[in-house]
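Submission checklist for the structure archive. All mandatory fields must be present; incomplete records are returned to the submitter.

[x] Identifier: Glycosyltransferase family 28 N-terminal domain-containing protein
[x] Organism: [Bacteroides] pectinophilus ATCC 43243
[x] Residue count: 90
[x] Sequence attached
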Amino acid sequence: MKRIVFTGGGTAGHVTPNIALIPSLKDAGYDICYIGSYDGIEKKLITDLGITYYGIDTGKLRRYKSLKNLSDPFHVIHGYSESASLMKKS
């Protein structure tokens, strides 16, 4: 079976275009899964559709001074590693 992996998060604005595509892709025979943050808004939107959802570690781009800016690159690197591992399993 052909598989499509969607990703996106942060705001519903990144997720809703994916949601619009999912029904027609499922009808065309694709197996669909979604990769997003552990607890972002995308998780509820996607799981409500019955789509397999995988959460990964994520960072945030802040345009202001914050100590979290120092740790976020490590979250992004870890999330990249998690997503690469998920893609290999698929």
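[x] Structure attached
Curator remark: The mean pLDDT is 90. The chain is about 50% helix and 20% strand.
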